[in-house]
Design a protein that fits this description.
Low-confidence stretches: 3-8, 14-21, 41-49, 378-391
Largest sheet: 7 strands, antiparallel
Structural class: alpha+beta
Helix content: 10-25%
CATH topology of the largest domain: Thrombin, subunit H
CATH architecture of the largest domain: Beta Barrel
Number of domains: 2
């Protein structure tokens, strides 16, 4: 190697060192620093932990601070007695608490008690008889308010593990566990003549006092509000019901904003088509909903739907026939009334149009109706029909 080559090599070495030093002092924007790498790694670990199902112990520890006890004082004339106990959970940092309408219905005073024992008088912000939901509010400091995360009930699968937290028989902060037994059930709405659709059925023990408390998935998210049990004794018998979070997310913001929710209404009553009825009607498949009565001045009446025109007796059983058979709504197949009610609850609001595919006089046709607000309980006529009658 000659002298000139050595000089050139030395200069290149100096240049490389200077460039490296400059990069160290002024790193490019797209090159992460050591601290950024550490933070990114931490974030990735947190994200990984959030996607991992929790144990029942972890679900309780994550959620217990957001579950409250609700004590209610009622007038002496109330048939349920002077006092009542229910559950609820914190919805936001503004002090809104979600519970069941039947927990606070007809109350003179509502008191909310948090995990640490602090109690506050609550004000009723909004109520909805038709979904049994209510929102109350407390003026509490943020250090006592721990909002629970609302999950997506539409992702629940039968057999999936869930947990319920509440105050059964006044035993504060009690947790039970079970599975999702089924979803899409119908539950009669108290004193309204209508039914609450899309209900979650669970075998997690739900008893008096649990009403209004959260039903949680394995990530500690609220997927339902425990609302009722099916029991002849009044105590848990393996079948409990919860209002799905999908309904909560639709109704609660409106209750907070307006104090009430206006439900869409079709204005029909009738019965599901079973094999015996299908044979009498002369239809091939035992599916669909037979319209028996069409309420006056209802969207169904205005849209031209027809109810029963005759009665036929078969083997001692009287069948009301001749009405339209609803086969589909907005392109979705109707197997029974549940499909109509769930579609209304999930997808429709007052003022929307709905396309009904019906079978009339042996021909399939479409009828378009414009949904109106459901009438109040006091000014509606409840029709009593034989087996499987329901109204919407």
């Amino acid at each position: 190697m000659n002298k000139s080559t050595a000089i050139i090599g030395g200069l290149l070495g100096v240049i490389i060192v200077l460039v490296a030093y400059s990069i160290f002092l002024n790193p490019p924007n797209n090159v992460p620093t050591v601290d950024e790498i550490a933070e990114n790694t931490k974030t990735a670990v947190v994200a990984q932990d959030q996607s991992k199902p929790l144990t029942l112990v972890e679900i309780f520890e994550k959620s217990e601070s957001g579950v409250v006890r609700i004590n209610v004082k009622r007038p002496s004339t109330d048939p349920r007695g002077l006092g009542g106990i229910g559950s609820g959970f914190v919805y936001d940092k503004e002090g809104h608490v979600i519970t069941n309408d039947h927990v606070v219905q007809n109350s003179e005073k509502v008191v909310v008690t948090f995990l640490d024992g602090r109690s506050f008088n609550a004000k009723i912000i909004g109520q909805d008889l038709f979904t049994d939901l209510a929102v109350i509010k407390v003026n509490a400091s943020s250090d006592v308010l721990f909002p629970l995360t609302i999950g997506d009930s539409s992702k629940l699968k039968v057999g999936e593990q869930i947990a319920a937290i509440g105050n059964p028989f006044g035993l504060s902060g009690s947790m039970t566990a079970g599975i999702v037994s089924q979803h899409g059930r119908l539950l009669p709405s108290q004193d309204s003549g209508f039914q609450i659709p899309d209900i979650i059925q669970t075998d997690a023990a739900i008893n008096p006092g649990n009403s209004g408390g959260p039903l949680l998935n394995t990530y500690g998210e609220v997927v339902g509000i425990n609302t009722a049990i099916q029991s002849e004794s009044g105590e848990f018998a393996g079948v409990g019901f919860a209002i799905p979070s999908r309904t909560v997310q639709k109704i609660v913001p409106v209750l907070i904003e307006n104090g009430a929710y206006h439900h869409p209404w079709v204005g029909i009553s009738g019965r599901d088509i079973d094999p015996d009825l299908a044979q009498i009607l002369g239809v091939k498949d035992a599916r669909g909903f037979l319209v028996i009565n069409v309420m006056n001045d209802s969207p169904a009446k205005i849209g031209g739907l027809r109810g029963m025109t005759q009665t036929r007796e078969v083997d001692g059983t009287s069948y009301q026939i001749g009405g339209d058979i609803i086969l589909a709504v907005d392109g979705k197949v109707v197997r029974k009334i549940d499909d109509i009610l769930i579609h209304l609850q999930r997808e429709k609001t007052v003022g929307d149009q709905m396309v009904l595919q019906i079978l009339r006089d042996g021909k399939v046709t479409d009828v378009v109706i414009t949904l109106e607000e459901r009438p109040g309980v006091s000014n509606q006529t409840i029709n009593s029909n034989p087996t499987n009658s329901t109204q919407r």
